[in-house]
Amino acid sequence: MQISLENLLEEVSGIETITNPAQVAKLSEDYAHFSPVLVPLLAGKVGDVVVRPSNESEVLRIAQTCVKYKIPLTVRGSGTGNYGQCTPMRGGIILETSRLQAIKWIKAGLACVEAGVKMVTLDKKAQEIGWESRMVPSTFRTATVGGFIAGGSGGIGSVLYGQLRDRGNLRAVRVVTLEDEPRIIELRGDDVQKVNHAYGTNGIITELEVPLATAYGWSEFVVSFTDFMTAARFGQALGNSDGIIKKLISVHAAPSSNYFTALQSYIPKDSHCALVLVAESDREPFLSLVKEFQGEVCYEKNAQEASKGLSLVEFSWNHTTLHARATDDSFTYLQSLFLNDPKLELVQRMHEYFGDEVIMHLEFIRVNGVVIPAAIQLVRFTTGDRLNEIIAYHESQGVFIANPHTYILEDGGMKTVDYAQLNFKRMVDPYGLMNPDKMKAWKS
């Protein structure tokens, strides 16, 4: 059944809408331009209208309209993802969650929020009673809680708490379905994995219960080193130092730090460095470790100073790519895991083999109880074929690549069909209207 835009707007009257083509186009994209592979694949993919519901009842009305007229629906948070997660492949309605911003409650260790609440807003509120988010993306100032769960995988804090899909890192979620009679379903326990990191392909997330962590005063340090492998081994040693509480260990091979414009007066040019967040109370043992690895602290802020202005968080994870591309937009990136490399021999092999073409950038995370280096390497892009060769070589040597150059859910980090997510989609989205073409298994 076809419906005109005029009639569609009538169906959702009373709900905020955006029809200006330029605004709709802007709200149809994220940071997929980091990938020269994704740019042509997503070019021209825009929605027809943006809707901004302010409560769950309005979400249900939008869902009912989509089902009635078989209109594709794509959910969007703040658009800070990198893989085109919120780009509508078949037009239709973009449901933007920015007005779903109620913090329902916060108590010791747990918070309940609507999907559009920003990570930074949740943290400020939680810190009033001594708690904070377990992990946040480098885009924490603008990213939403719902968007992080639907499109993210981990971030600052993952060195302590692992990945978002680890049991316990999401407690409950409410979703609106696109069945003939849309309904609200609450998922708890392991059932939350049905929609966790599913790109909004199988339910409109409206509300979440997320665990919190004890809020420490986090001191920020930049430590410079004369060679990369010393910096990397320092990062691994810090990750393994159970008596030192840390939230971020971000290690960068030269010339990465040259692109950190706001830090250039602190970091020696062409040096290798580690960006670190450590509990202020653990400063002394941390500095002892720095001395052991002959590092030089070139930047330090205590917790009070670090709570104001720019944070080192905004030079870590994929913000590193953002800063590099601000200087040279030919840069792209990889996402890698060094799963069984306790002596960093594979890290060293990749670093030495590719040299300046693939600049090493490590983010230490916890996987199955063990701290390991993940990598978000800067890649000097030349051709798609060369990029595929770089990926293939990493994989042939035992490096796991979570491919950031695809918008297909299963082809990125999953590498396999998640049948729980697929079966849930079959139930709650029988017409395949939610973020179509992103879940490969749906079409097979």
TrEMBL record:
InterPro entries: FAD-bd_PCMH (IPR016166), FAD-bd_PCMH-like_sf (IPR036318), FAD-bd_PCMH_sub2 (IPR016169), Oxid_FAD_bind_N (IPR006094). PROSITE patterns: FAD_PCMH. Residues 42-215 form the FAD-binding PCMH-type domain. PANTHER family: D-2-HYDROXYGLUTARATE DEHYDROGENASE, D-LACTATE DEHYDROGENASE. This is FAD-binding oxidoreductase.
